[in-house]
Write a structure and sequence with these properties.
Length: 123
């Protein structure tokens, strides 16, 4: 574990641990959305308030080793699901609660962008 994993670099910036919890939950949420997109016709997703989830989940108080294991498990499960998809499934649609429409393809690109962004955040 990084020595500074629990420390916030500023009052409004998450710690490395909190980012780890968030990315774990991103993997889980996106996996659930991907399953729905593959099984349902144009599902509408409930809003996910990431900040509310961080507070309710007490991200800064979770055990770093457990979070690391959960992060690896959730990321692996999502990667496996993408790996098992057929070519024709990449165009299946889904919608966020604000009405924004995604395909599995654009959802996957958004996911990768989000993860790369958070890797940059934690340095």
């Amino acid at each position: 574990m990084r020595q500074d994993a629990l420390a916030r670099p500023g009052p409004a910036t998450w710690s490395t641990l909190e980012y780890g919890c968030h990315v774990r939950d991103v993997f889980t949420i996106f996996d659930g959305r991907l399953v729905r997109m593959l099984q349902e016709d144009d599902p509408l997703f409930e809003n996910w308030d990431q900040d509310e989830t961080a507070v309710a989940g007490r991200y800064g108080e979770q055990a770093p080793a457990r979070v690391a294991d959960e992060l690896e498990t959730a990321g692996g499960a999502l990667a496996d699901r993408f790996d098992q998809m057929g070519r024709d499934e990449w165009s299946r649609p889904g919608r966020r609660s604000d009405g924004a429409t995604f395909t599995v393809n654009s959802l996957s690109r958004y996911l990768l962008h989000d993860i790369v962004h958070h890797l940059h955040d934690v340095g």
